[in-house]
Amino acid sequence: MEVNLPIKHRAVIPCVTFLLVFVFAGCGAGVSPFEKEIELKRVASGEPAYVYVPFEVPAGAETVSVVLNYDKNDGNNRIELGVFDERFAGNHQDKKGFRGWSGSVRDGFFIAKEHATRGYEKGDINPGKWHLIFGLAALESESVKAKISISFREVPADLKRTLDEETAKQFTHEISRVSGDKVWLRGDLHAHTFHGDGKWSVKAILDSARANKLDFVSITEHNTFSHHSEMDRLAGDYPELLILKGQEITTYGGHFNTWGLGTGEWVDFRVVPANPQSAKQIADEAHSFQALVSANHPTMDCKGCKWSYGDLTPMDSVEIWNAKWDEQDEQSLVMWDKLLREGKRITAIGSSDTHQPPYEPSDYPTNLVVGSPTVFVAREGKLSQESLFRSLKKGKVYVAEDPGKRVSLVAAKTARPGETVTFDQEGKVNYHVRLSGFSSDSTVKVIWKLKNGTTGRKTMPIRVSAVEFDGSVAGASPGYLRLEVRNPDGSMAAFTNPIWILGGEQ
Predict the structure, then answer these.
(1) CA distance 139 to 41
(2) Mind listing the pLDDT tens digit for each residue in 187-238?
């Protein structure tokens, strides 16, 4: 049986092609399970790092259950796993029949009519040629041998046990005392559940958002949409919460978030790293769904996480604050501020990237309540996806450690972050700052940078829970004005997007 890849790939992975001709001959003769070895070989530079392995699903199959085994070599080998059903043509250009993805988080999955491993879509098991998709996230050498076991009648006990344990897990939530806000909507745009690499249920994410008095939340799983139907089913229980179906588009050259997908919609992640056209391709597809797209944690130091696509301008926003503030977020802040100095208006956001509750231990700093940090988006009329997205794209946004921190930066009496002002008759822009909810010994900085080279900042210590002061910018040149609040240890407590200053000398 031939590997159904474009001809340009066949020269790259001759070992895979040869082995599959041998391994899968006659596999569709019945519904008995089988177990075979394959060899996955590194693809050529400049090609998407994915390999498709076809297998026959026989008539009468009740499940497709797959278990993958290979030598991970202390993490130096990392193979990611997904599957397409019989509708798929077997090449990078086709999206039909995608049934799910678990990346390298799971080494197996099952799909049946009524149930499936989270990350995969339950439903009909139609006979025909299905394809496993292997993402070659990391190979220490030119190739790695792997063993796959596929069954069509019985679900392996450990796969069923995992599903049962996830379903039975109970969660607790602290209740926020934050009151409502008529000016700003509070939310979290980056969260993970059992459908991806998280340890939350979908319901627990929504419960945490409600307990924290958020107005909107998005669940953004890696390269899958299996959480969408569960979000739809639960949405009626949370009428006060705008629930955004999302995806973390996880490529080997950087991660993207997209929010506002329709049920079952997914943005193709099979792109070439370090190619600026790949970012544009992803942005264009997300926008075709009327969704927004954001660059995630662009300076994060993990394999495949750091942004390799160059220009960020195809993005609607960039996530410069991911989970707990650290040095990598500082680097993202510098990257974003450079774009602002160049006059590029891209919205900066932050979100929790929560993977598990705060009371559970974690090797990563993502055991956070939903809304840590919180993204605040200016309210424009009735809460809706459309009005939220309008404000977010315009940069009417600030980010704070939690939903209890309040920031008000107003220039020329009416302009807030994301809006524009001009110099008054005296050649100044006056601004007013009001803060509450920050710890004593924090510091607030108002920062401005103008096109003529003028830069400045006003720094004030925070001694009491509520702070209010005025200031002005002079320089008669276009530029921007923004605000940061720093904790006593120097970490970020809040930042605003800029107020843009127009007029003056160009």
Answers:
(1) 8
(2) 999 999 999 999 999 999 999 999 999 999 999 999 999 999 999 999 999 9
Write out the residue range of the structural domain in which residue 480 sits: 405-506
Q: DSSP E strands: which ranges in 43-178?
A: 50-57, 63-70, 78-84, 98-103, 108-112, 128-138, 143-151
Counted domains in the chain: 3
- Write down which residue in 163, 179, 210 finishes a domain: 163
pLDDT tens-place string over residues 35-91:
989 999 999 888 999 999 999 999 999 999 999 999 999 999 999 999 999 999 999
In a domain, 349, yes or no: yes
DSSP state, residue 45: T
Domain-embedded: residue 93:
yes
Spell out the residues 6+ positions from residue 138 whose beta carbon is closer than 8 angstroms to its own: 75, 76, 77, 78, 303
In angstroms, the CA 84 to CA 2 distance is: 16
Residues 6+ apart with CB under 8 A from 43: 9, 12, 13, 49, 50, 51, 136
Helix (H) or strand (E) holding 327: helix 327-341
CB 52 within 8 A of CB 132: yes
Q: Give phi and psi for 495, each to the nearest 5.
A: -145, 155
Q: How far apart are CA 499 and CA 411, in angstroms?
A: 8
Residue 239 sits in a domain whose CATH number is 3.20.20.140
Burial pattern 490-501, b for ≥16 Cβ within 10 A else e, equals: eebbbbbbbbbb
Separation of alpha carbons 76 and 86, rounded Å: 33
Residue 298 pLDDT exceeds 80? yes
Cα–Cα distance for residue pair 411/99, rounded to 1 Å: 50
Indicate whether 282 and 251 sit together in one domain: yes
CB 503 within 8 A of CB 478: yes
Q: For residues 151 and 161, give the distance between their C-alpha atoms in angstroms, rounded to a whole number.
A: 17
Q: Do 17 and 6 contact (CB within 8 A), yes or no?
A: no
Q: Are 186 and 285 within one domain?
A: yes
The larger pLDDT score, comparing residue 149 to residue 178, is at 149
User: Would 343 be classed as within a structural domain?
Assistant: yes
Q: What is the pLDDT of residues 147-167, one digit of tens each?
A: 999 999 999 999 999 999 999
pLDDT in tens, 418-441: 999 999 999 999 999 999 999 999
**Which pLDDT score, from 0 to 100, does residue 361 have?**
87
- Single out the residue of 285, 371, 303 nearest to residue 49, CA to CA: 303
Domain CATH for 149: 2.60.120.380
Note the pLDDT of residue 371. 97
Indicate whether 290 and 411 sit together in one domain: no
Give the helix/strand (H/E) hosting 394: helix 385-394
Global pTM value: 0.92
CA atoms within a 13 Å half-sphere pointing along the CA-CB vector of 383: 18
